[in-house]
Amino acid sequence: MIDFEIPAELAQRRDEVLAFVTEKVVPYEKDPRVTPHGPTEELRNELVALAREAGLLTFQAPQDGRPAPTHIEQAILFEAAGWSALGPIALNCAAPDEGNMFLLGKIADPGQAEQFLRPVVEGHHRSVFAMTEPGGAGSDPRQLATTAVRDGDGYVINGRKWLITGANGAQTWIIMADLEGAGATLFLCHGDTPGIVIERTMDTMDRNYVEGHCVVLFDDLRLPASALLGEEGEAFRYAQLRLAPARLTHCMRWLGGGVRAQSIALEYARTRTAFGKPIGQHQGVGFMLADNEIALQQCRLMIWWACWVLDQGQQGRHESSMTKAMVSEELFKVADRCVQVLGGMGISDETPVAGFFRDVRAFRLYDGPTEVHQFAIANRLLRD
Length: 384
Ligand SMILES: Cc1cc2nc3c(=O)[nH]c(=O)nc-3n(C[C@H](O)[C@H](O)[C@H](O)COP(=O)(O)OP(=O)(O)OC[C@H]3O[C@@H](n4cnc5c(N)ncnc54)[C@H](O)[C@@H]3O)c2cc1C
Known about the structure:
It contains eleven helices and twelve strands.
């Protein structure tokens, strides 16, 4: 049976999340600690404390005997969290931590989970996933240039990464390197391990990831044997485990941002007048709002469908790929139309719409650029 009704208990949880974000988090949107390099660690800690107090921190993890929400339940809750770009940060369900927690929950051994995962789940530490390289791994991760060599019982890692979200101040590090004789391998270590050098924070158009995105040098980074995450040579398989759900949670959070942007554009279209009537009553504006509403609902349904596939125990690579490509492209169009409806104010930071525009522009690139998803989808179609 196909049923789109949201169960009462889930709807109540969604409303709690939304109320928390609108009442407690939105007032921080103009805080000077939201810098061009993203919210600072200090602001993040203050927001996390609010969610902890509200009993909503890391709601996507199993807690107090309650199982983790299913993917489809997450879709409802993450959309509510995304009403403000700071919402997922406060609730500890933002990237990259949320995807990293998911991955560590799947492959970390009990000792690693205690040391590296638990403090992230509890909101005390942040984490990074370091894969992309200038001129090396990117759309094609097989171009991985960072190397790991065996050294006694341990490993030595050398290479340079960039676009590494939240690197500055993060304590739990997942690093992808090409291990001699084994291939791409994941390693786990603390951010203050000698040999990790944060060269700079990049100036990027988006502003809503804690501490921005960094260029990082691994300069003879020496790690013990216990730093191996999972098995040698399995990094791409593990990265795939993380990617499908992480792609979808990005879609869910930014859908929430799209709903907010549309609500701001609607309010403006109702109240701003031009040529004798509210601008929304001019067809040119009304049609933009209608197109937004159609796109937002298409995105939502696509997300729910892909989540349903994952909830059936399937990997959902094809479905999550289609969804990520479609949602990021459509939300970008929604953002652009909202900016247009708001007139000159739309490109200013008087409203969160310009920030949403910048954020979804970046979303068309990370977790697989649209063209790379199209390439993978086409390859599967031709192969199968
Ligand atoms: C905001 C943001 C945060 C990020 N955070 C992280 C992070 O925390 N950790 C991390 O490791 N990485 C991170 N990244 C990097 C991200 O994963 C890469 O940007 C992405 O994988 C693309 O790689 P690239 O930038 O090297 O682009 P390139 O690989 O250089 O691609 C350039 C262009 O070529 C196109 N292209 C490539 N292959 C094909 C093809 N087969 N067909 C058609 N077109 C193609 C791409 O679509 C793109 O338009 C982040 C990126 C952004 C923007």
